[in-house]
Design goal:
alpha+beta, Uridine Diphospho-n-acetylenolpyruvylglucosamine Reductase, domain 3, 5-stranded antiparallel sheet, about 25% strand
């Protein structure tokens, strides 16, 4: 699989009755161009998020370096965002051999921001998906 195909495998927009799911490889500029992204979310990105960051910033990069207490953190917290991550864990078999495997876990913004970006890299934490609450999006006053 070449790099472009692999990069596109984490670029998707899905919706159900409770959430909007965004692949973490999207940049804010790409989200603004994507037809499947709701208009209100595009408005929030252009009015509130882009003044705080660059359009080329990927969701993965943004959430990896998100600081608790920043204006951007407050905006994203109001949207009731959760983040799906893959954690690299050591698992020991019954025979005593060690094995490293990825396990998916859903974290709140507060849980994610408590870990330093350097520590996330060292622990092998990969951000794969951003989950936006439809209720949070609906109650956000633009």
């Amino acid at each position: 699989m070449n790099g472009e195909q692999q990069d596109n495998s984490f670029k998707y927009v899905m919706m159900d009755t409770g959430h909007i799911y965004l692949g973490a490889k999207y940049s804010y500029a790409e989200l603004l161009e994507e037809d499947a992204v709701p208009f209100k979310l595009k408005t929030i990105i252009s009015r509130y998020i882009l003044p705080e960051t660059k359009a080329e910033t990927t969701l993965e990069g943004q959430f990896s370096h998100l600081e608790n207490g920043s204006l951007l953190f407050g905006i994203l917290q109001q949207l009731k965002i959760k983040v799906k991550v893959s954690l690299l864990l050591d698992k020991k078999s019954r025979a005593g051999r060690g094995d490293r495997r990825y396990k998916e876990k859903i974290l709140t913004l507060k849980q994610l921001s408590q870990t330093a970006p350097e520590q996330k890299d060292a622990d092998g934490i990969l951000i794969t998906e951003i989950m936006i609450s439809r209720l949070g999006l609906m109650s956000f006053h633009v």
